[in-house]
Design brief:
Order of helices and strands: EHEHEHEHEHEHHEHHHE
Number of domains: 2
Strand order of the largest sheet: 7-5-6-4-1-2-3-8
Helix content: 40-55%
Largest sheet: 8 strands, mixed
Structural class: alpha/beta
Distance between the termini: 15 Å
CATH architecture of the largest domain: Alpha-Beta Complex
Shape: elongated
CATH topology of the largest domain: Spore Coat Polysaccharide Biosynthesis Protein SpsA, Chain A
Radius of gyration: 25 Å
Strand content: 5-15%
CATH superfamily of the largest domain: Spore Coat Polysaccharide Biosynthesis Protein SpsA, Chain A
Number of strands: 8
């Protein structure tokens, strides 16, 4: 199969018929064999009924319906599991991503050998309250990940080799960092393409200010996990040991000073308490690393979701 197109969605009943027709025009013009997997992330409108109607008219359109809302990462992860095409395209359902970009994204994967090609919405139709935090978020991600050639990590329009989506796990709200996760998994040829950003035609945005706060928290998480996910003791143990040694040496110095000066006095007592506190913190960090090692070795599957219905999968 030439192409798998994965579309996570939440309350997008108005845009789905037009989007599906546009996708069909593009893939038909390019003579692609294809599948479109729409993942309904617990919509409360008639999105699933629309997906059923589209699938009844075209068997290449498939669907997964979550029993409740789990978030975009969960939807993408399930879509990745189901995908079969040689090239996998992800795009949003709100009509702000253009299906006309698909042929060039696919060409860059197959002919230029990229593992991932990420879209860059260079000209955006978003309010300044969204664009400025987005630029800050992208700058921080470039700095921490070392992927310096991407301008828009969170662009929903991306292309992947099939083996990339089968090798990574997306959970929580980590969809913003798929290029970082892929690089961590060993896929280092990551490209970028300037893509059209269209003004929203139907409905309203489903995201608020909290996504930017969550984004930076997730960045800290993915940075830690990518370096120490398989060896948390190397992080907690190192800093725990350093804290303990600093506190221990301070305590030894203060005890020796007491016997030398024969006066512990009020001056040294706060320092002694600080030394004990640093030692305790060190021991707690060390224990945290040990517990993290045990949890990491016995963690159950993270991605487990209640799926109410499936179409064609």
């Amino acid at each position: 199969m030439h192409l798998s197109i994965i579309i996570p969605l939440f309350n997008e009943e108005e845009s789905l018929p037009e989007l599906s027709e546009w996708i069909v025009r593009v893939v038909t013009a390019n003579q692609y064999s294809y599948e479109v997997i729409m993942i309904d992330d617990g919509s409360t409108d008639n999105s699933w009924q629309v997906i059923e109607q589209i699938s009844a008219n075209n068997a290449n359109f498939k669907g997964i319906k979550f029993q409740r809302n789990y978030g975009k990462s969960a939807a993408l992860n399930e879509g990745f599991k189901a995908a079969k095409g040689d090239v996998v395209i992800t795009m949003d359902a709100d009509m702000q991503d253009s299906p006309d970009e698909i042929p060039e994204l696919r060409r860059m994967i197959l002919e230029e050998g990229f593992d991932i090609v990420s879209g860059w919405k260079q000209k955006r139709y978003d309010p300044i309250t969204k664009t400025i935090p987005t630029k800050l978020f992208n700058a921080a991600t470039r700095w921490s990940s070392g992927i310096n050639n991407l301008h828009d990590f969170n662009c929903g329009l991306k292309a992947y080799k099939l083996k990339v989506v089968k090798s990574i796990e997306v959970y929580g709200e980590m969809h913003r960092y798929i290029p970082v996760i892929a690089k961590w998994a060993g896929f280092r040829k990551i490209g970028e393409k300037i893509v059209e950003h269209r003004a929203r035609k139907y409905g309203i945005t489903k995201f608020g200010w909290e996504r930017f706060i969550n984004g930076f928290l997730d960045l800290a998480t993915i940075s830690f996990v990518s370096k120490f996910g398989k060896r948390p003791m190397h992080f907690f143990g190192l800093y725990g040991t350093l804290c303990f040694l600093i506190g221990f040496l301070m305590s030894v110095y203060l005890i020796i000073s007491k016997f030398v000066t024969t006066d512990f006095g009020l001056t040294n007592r706060p320092a002694f308490y600080i030394a004990l506190t640093v030692m305790i913190i060190g021991m707690q960090l060390f224990l945290a690393g040990f517990i993290a090692e045990l949890v990491g070795r016995n963690a159950p599957e993270r991605n487990s979701y209640l799926i109410e219905k499936k179409l064609g999968i």
